[in-house]
Amino acid sequence: MSEPAASAAGSLLDVNGLLENPVFAGGFGLASLGAALAFARRGALASAGLIRRRLLVNVEISRQDPAYPWILAWLSEPRPQTSFLAKRLTRINKLSVTTATSTTPNGPTQASFFLQPGYGRHIVKYKHAYIAVNREKQSTAKTNTGEPHETLELTTLYAHRHIFEDVFTEARGLALRANEGKTVVYSVRNFDWVPLGIPRRKRPLASVVLDKGVKEDIVNDARDFLARRQWYVDRGIPYRRGYLLYGPPGSGKSSFIQALAGELDYSVAMINLSEIGVTDDKLAFLLTKLPERSIVLLEDADSAFVNRRRRDADGYSGGTVTFSGLLNALDGLSAGEERIAFLTTNHIELLDPALIRPGRVDMMVRIGEATRYQAAQMWDRFYGDVDHDGVNRERFLARLDELGLFRDVVEGANPIRTSTAAIQGLFLFNKNDMEGAINMAEGLIPQKLEAEP
Ligand SMILES: Nc1ncnc2c1ncn2[C@@H]1O[C@H](COP(=O)(O)OP(=O)(O)OP(=O)(O)O)[C@@H](O)[C@H]1O
Ligand SMILES: [Mg+2]
């Protein structure tokens, strides 16, 4: 988002900047704008209702519409006015704030404040046209989330009606630019997709180390799919593709999906299927209104299958997604025509073969415990700049061999294995300290959690 009023340092409002900004200029001394407006409006209503209807055009944007946040952000753009009248008219007296917090590398949390026009009436001047803005909460109508319905109404002269096209184009452009280089992760709040925190910097694909060729296979498949839209359309096949990533915790499934989304320039729309309250209806509804250019990520897909069994037993599904709910969401009538879905699970054995059907899940990949190849790659990512000849890498790998930790090297009745997350943890603990990493390699042996005797 453009953040005209978010200070560079982060935690303080740049009040000066705010006041100098005519869009925001508090208008603390000009309390009469509202009254003047109301007066003008009453006059207009009384004397020339007809003319008003003839001469003005307005556009109503509902809170539910994707354009709603774009237009709000667009309204917050600084638009310096030169003429006296424009300066006075376009002051905004009512603001609302959206605060986002994030942790900084060296210190407490950082907050950024994003100011937007508050509820009520405002005027903006854009190019040659004045646009009256009315942001309203409708207390009577409730959305399905229980929140009051909200609308934004833009009004301008009939003669200037074409300005709306420019407004929407510019607002959309702004929204796109604000997220450039970032991956937006949407999560579910009630019945809506909302961005989860501040958009994150794209995670480079190279930072996720999967076994040899695995990453390339999935990335190529997804790219191929994206390039074939017309092919699907011509054949009347729904343009959908599903992937299932399964394997033990901490193997990089979620990280990979996030990095892939960044690579393809997509957002991630994430639903945790094990969460209480995500019901079949809700899932179906959410999939019909996915944020544009987003990959659907259904985490913990196995919970839908567990629920089936639970339901069989007592006839109640416990307020979560059922097996049939998941299948319908993936390719039933309610499923959108276009989408890429990723499912993840730690328990492939709980899944049902019905899931593995073209259009539901087209590609299944196991993302497993760490292999020798992955450990070597990760070593290079962490210590490549200090371990020029790779001698220490070989020592580290030899040590892991000795401990019998690689899934591709040791096979046995009860092999011990380790996760890439654990290796990352070890390296993070021993930043710049190769000896430390080698000495502590034993810590990679998974701990068994056992009750004390
Ligand atoms: N293969 C990997 N390459 C790079 N980083 C990894 C890899 N595997 C795990 N990590 C790191 O470990 C952490 C956990 O990884 P992630 O959440 O992607 O695992 P996951 O497979 O989704 O686990 P779960 O099944 O529990 O959801 C992240 O910080 C991630 O960066
Ligand atoms: Mg995960």
From TrEMBL:
AAA+ ATPase domain location: 239-371
Topology relative to the membrane: Single-pass membrane protein
Domain (BCS1 N-terminal): residue spans on this chain: 31-208
Gene Ontology cellular component annotations, sorted alphabetically: mitochondrial inner membrane
Catalysis performed (reactions): ATP + H2O = ADP + phosphate + H(+)
Keyword Mitochondrion on entry: yes
Domain of life: Eukaryota
Keywords per UniProt: ATP-binding, Hydrolase, Membrane, Mitochondrion, Mitochondrion inner membrane, Nucleotide-binding, Transmembrane, Transmembrane helix
CDD domains found in the cross-reference section: RecA-like_BCS1
Keyword Transferase annotated: no
Pfam families per UniProt: AAA, AAA_lid_BCS1, BCS1_N
GO molecular function: ATP binding; ATP hydrolysis activity
Compartment(s) of residence: Mitochondrion inner membrane
InterPro entries (alphabetical): AAA+_ATPase (IPR003593), AAA_lid_BCS1 (IPR057495), ATPase_AAA_core (IPR003959), BCS1_N (IPR014851), Mitochondrial_chaperone_BCS1 (IPR050747), P-loop_NTPase (IPR027417)
Family: Belongs to the AAA ATPase family. BCS1 subfamily.
Protein name: Mitochondrial chaperone BCS1
Taxonomy of the source species: Eukaryota, Fungi, Dikarya, Ascomycota, Pezizomycotina
